From TrEMBL:
NYN domain boundaries: 5-156
Protein name: NYN domain-containing protein
InterPro entries: NYN
Domain of life: Bacteria
Length: 204
């Protein structure tokens, strides 16, 4: 039997923020604690294979906001450099959507809009239309993704799992059930693909 094709779907702000809550002191600056998504995808596939489910990593898909370079030039440049570093691997795709800036910005923070919808659409489309994966692994605590997961399960066009940090909260599940199956990642897993690069520096 051929190894299962695995696509990892990652809401990066959710993944990064929950890692900070799980493994860093309260109040840690969000410039810290970033991860290498490709190495995380490799680890998930390795764990599936070790557990008796032969798998290969087909793609890691990252969904995140993009700062406006006119409003936040330094943050936008760092975001660009980090995305460029990730996509050096041909198996990594980054989908970014512009941040929304409230009227009272910068007294109120900019927010991501449409990230969960973009991720949900791709979870369903890549399974039901494109036949791009056998196993989709979703890293997000956003319950807005549940209908897409239910649709994939109902259509039987792919197998969905989730992954979450142990102690970080945000384990995604369908209400009243233990589904989808969750792969818990602990601090030793996290440290294995921690990325210490300072992307605020131009030479990063």
């Amino acid at each position: 039997m051929a190894p299962a094709r695995v696509v990892v779907f990652m809401d990066y702000q959710n993944v990064h923020g929950s890692a900070l809550r799980a493994f860093w002191p309260r109040g840690t600056h969000p410039a810290n604690g970033h991860i290498d998504p490709y190495r995380l995808g490799q680890l998930i596939v390795q764990k599936r294979t070790t557990n008796g489910y032969p798998s290969r990593l087909a793609q890691v898909r990252i969904y995140r906001g993009a700062p406006n370079p006119r409003r936040q030039p330094a943050a936008a440049a760092a975001n660009d450099r980090q995305s460029d570093a990730w996509t050096r691997s041909p198996k990594v795709l980054v989908r970014r959507r512009p941040l929304r800036y409230p009227t009272r910005w910068p007294h109120e923070p900019a927010v991501e809009k449409g990230i969960d919808v973009a991720l949900a659409v791709d979870v369903l489309r890549l399974a039901a239309v494109d036949d791009s994966y056998d196993v989709g692994v979703v890293l997000s605590g956003d319950t807005d993704l549940v209908p897409a997961i239910e649709a994939v399960q109902g259509l039987k066009c792919g197998h969905i799992e989730v992954a979450a940090w142990r102690g970080g909260g945000g384990r995604l599940r369908i209400d009243g059930t233990s589904s989808p199956w969750c792969r818990w990642l602990d601090e030793s897993d996290y440290r294995a693909f921690l990325d210490p690069t300072d992307y605020s520096r131009p030479h990063a």
